[in-house]
Hints:
The structure holds two protein chains of two kinds. Chain A is α+β, with helices and mostly antiparallel strands.
Amino acid sequence: MRYEVFRQDKPGAYHTHCGDVHAPDREMALLFAQIQHGRRMQTNSLWVVPKEEIGEVDTDEAAFGGTTDKAYRWATTYNVDASFAEEIEASEREQAAEERKRGSDD
Amino acid sequence: MAATDDVADLAPDERAALEALLFRMADDEFVLAERYTEWQVRAPTLESDLALANIAQDELGHARLWYDALQGLGYSEPELVWERNPADFRHSILVELPFTGGDWADPIVRSYLYDEAEHLRLQALEDAPVRALADPIGKVQREEEYHREHAQSWLERLCDDAEGREAVEAAVGRLFGPALTLFVPGEHEATVERMGLRSESLADQREQWLDVVVPFLGSLGVEVPFGPEEDVDDLLPERVGRDGNHTDDWPALHEELTRTYRELGRSDARRLRGERRE
């Protein structure tokens, strides 16, 4: 049985998908995942999830973000001095990078 | 004996006893790791292959710790491993026996019997009055926990059906006697006891080990190869390893694991390990 493995490198961080592991059950999957995905990279925690338990929707089935122009909902539309908050600045930078990506797709 | 972090304070017989204790542990870990690596690319799945290879790496790391402690007592690495007479090794014969070809139950049972004993041995050294012994214990125990969980998890799953249970029982039948040699005292045992290096004697450790492994195997439907009225000592093999008297499989394995060292010559071996030439 195939388990997908998600690694968190430090407390509070997101668990990020890092690969898979084959195991007969969850307990063995946790044992194997420690070796395969937690040994070389800094690891605080691992999740193992049976592959068939993961729901998926992809671009064949969904139009992510809609199909019409909704640029008004992008944070970069508004001219705000966000220098008072680091996380808002970071979020704006992310958004701007996403916009550039969308632009090149068209 | 008062706690010491300076082995120079030890009387000659005490120093010999400390060395003997370190050699038993280092040799057990080193030779077991060497045997485990024979499963590389041969284990039932990629995952089980990696897990056992990782356990082998852990055991090599532990061997390195105890050999380092011996280097602190004046031995060099070639004297400890590469150029040591095979008859001077003090590991239990459990770790030198070849695996039964392709039988996955063998390394799992061996690991189970060994790691439960290893756990007790380390526990008994936690408060040893010599820092070279006591200090590394915590680190080693944390890795050993994985080994025990790994072996127990596999045993539970192998014993899920009759075929697997039979393979486990056959391996237990073969390996139980050799595993008892883990607890056989060496030449300096009396001094080890007098110095209070262990909080539990080897005989007590063996009792505790039997109290753990016999019921666990029983809970899986696996019978141990002796009855309740029988003396477990009857299973003890003629050669135990602890006195340097090994099975014929050991010189062959030693020859194999030192071959590259001999072929390369000492200076090349140093270069490959990134050490400076002397």
